[in-house]
UniProtKB/TrEMBL annotation:
It comes from the Eukaryota. A motif (VHIID) lies at residues 128-132. Keywords: Transcription, Transcription regulation. It comes from Urochloa decumbens. InterPro entries: TF_GRAS. Residues 362-437 are annotated as: SAW. PROSITE patterns: GRAS (PS50985). This is Scarecrow-like protein 3. The keyword Transcription applies. Belongs to the GRAS family. PANTHER family: OSJNBA0084A10.13 PROTEIN-RELATED (PTHR31636). The keyword Magnesium does not apply.
Length: 459
């Protein structure tokens, strides 16, 4: 299993045992054995009680997820399990969301890279409409910095319109107030347009009106850590013959990994199989078609770079174990350098990342919405939907790297792949940042054509 870069985890032999025990527990859960699972859960609890470290905290969350997965098929139990939205109060949950953006070096890096790409795409524009589809990842800090960059633009700032999609009215009101005050101080013409909701609940058949996009304005779209929620498909085949074969494959693979002697980093080399989708899911295709019709100057996408959308549970389990071990370790390092932020880190792990893990490991079919995919998969979806990749500029990558290095953590790394940016902790990919625009020959037409349309024409 992933070895944390900070060596404060306690006896190495106990850490080495955690991986096999977790794999064994997952195999017992897949078999449906309550007795064997109970033994494994007791072993996990014992191994994680030695010291409070990131790997131990992650293991407890995974153990809880495995216990829930075992209970879900039992009649009556599934409905009795409380959904996090029922026991997390909205203000506390919103605070945890903001804590993640403040703590994570990667989200700050994403904001810096995305802002530079928007500035470059809007270099000579007089009216700029930015659409923030990041929902729960939205943060006023990103757009305050962009307003300041526009203020310093040669030739003066443009008129800026910002549309934000979010599910929290209070957050939107605070964001409007902060950004409006900043724009007034900078003397930038500014309009804030809130859209209450989530990305997956928007009306893609009427997206122009929903987002209040006007003809003739330059449009930039930013979507951070949300598009994977549009990959939902009804892939639950547990009752079919294929489902039984998959269950057997899950058990065999997990037992093989549990019985092997793994070095702390060996599972990072576990073969990563892309998700088996042969076509873009309908919801994502509908969204991308609607975006393409808006003819944006640029679309920026930030996503978790992980294969959490595999059909086989064993593939998702191994991928989630390694991915979140690296992510927990990076946040542990941030809090280690800033001890006063330990409470923020704990809240993020429990309320944000912990719930992601539970969704990946417990839920199936349409109930599993944390379907993270790798950059190559996103490129496939974007290309199929009529988008061309826009290479991130040297300056955008450099500014992102400067932001990443400003946290002073040796484990933070970045690399360029196919003109996109990958953010890593050690050798583990955590996030990808890519830029896109509609293909010039697509049926959506060009922005130049849009500008000469009569104002009474409505699409």
């Amino acid at each position: 299993m992933y070895m944390p870069l900070m060596q404060d985890q306690g006896p190495a032999d106990h850490l080495a045992q955690l991986g096999p025990v977790l794999y064994t527990c997952a195999a017992h859960v897949t078999e449906g054995s309550f007795e064997k699972t109970d033994i494994s859960l007791s072993q996990i609890k014992s191994l994680t009680s030695i010291v409070d470290g990131p790997l131990q905290r992650l293991s407890l969350i995974i153990a809880d997820s495995l216990a829930r997965r075992l209970l879900c098929p039992v009649q009556g139990f599934s409905g009795a399990l409380i959904h996090p939205s029922d026991y997390f109060e909205q203000p506390i949950l919103q605070t945890a969301r903001c804590n993640l953006a403040n703590l994570s070096p990667y989200i700050s890096t994403g904001f810096a890279t995305i802002n530079r790409a928007i500035l470059e795409a809007m270099e000579n524009e007089k009216v700029v409409h930015i659409v923030d589809l990041s929902c729960s990842t939205s943060h006023p800090r990103q757009w305050i910095k962009l307003l300041r960059e526009f203020h310093g633009r040669q030739g003066g700032p443009p008129e800026v319109r910002l549309t934000v999609v979010h599910d929290n009215n209070g957050f939107m009101a605070d964001m409007r107030s902060l950004l409006s005050k900043e724009a007034d101080m900078l003397k930038i013409p500014f309009q804030f347009n809130p859209v209450i909701g989530r990305l997956e609940t928007l009306d893609f058949n009427n997206l122009r009106n929903t987002l209040n996009i006007k003809y003739g304005e330059a449009v930039a779209i930013s979507c951070s850590l949300q598009m994977h929620r549009l990959l939902v498909v009804d892939d639950n085949m547990s009752c079919s013959g294929i489902g039984q074969l998959q269950k057997m494959a899950n058990i065999a693979q997990l037992k093989k990994m549990a019985s092997s002697v793994y070095s702390p980093t060996s599972t990072l080399n576990y073969p990563q199989t892309p998700s088996p989708q042969c076509q873009t899911p309908k919801l994502l295709a509908s969204f991308l078609n609607a975006i393409r019709a808006l003819k944006p100057n640029i679309m920026l996408v930030m996503e978790q770079d992980a294969n959490h959308n595999a059909l086989l549970f064993c593939d998702r389990f191994v991928e989630a174990l390694n991915y979140y071990a690296a992510l927990f370790d990076s946040l542990h390092a941030v809090a280690g350098a800033n001890p006063q932020r330990a409470d923020e880190r704990a809240r993020v792990e429990r309320m944000i990342l912990g719930e992601e893990i539970k969704n990946i490991l417990v839920c199936e079919g349409v109930h599993r919405h944390e379907r993270h995919e790798r950059l190559s998969q996103w490129a496939m979806h974007m290309n199929r939907s009529g988008f061309d990749r826009v290479p991130l500029s040297f300056r955008a990558i450099w500014e992102g790297n400067q932001k990443l290095m400003s946290f002073g953590l040796n484990g933070c790394q970045n690399k360029v792949e196919n003109d996109c940016l990958l953010l890593c902790w050690g050798s583990t990919h955590l996030y990808s940042i890519s830029a896109w625009r509609p293909h010039k020959g697509s049926s959506s037409g060009s922005r130049e054509h849009m500008l000469v349309q009569p104002q009474h024409q409505i699409i």
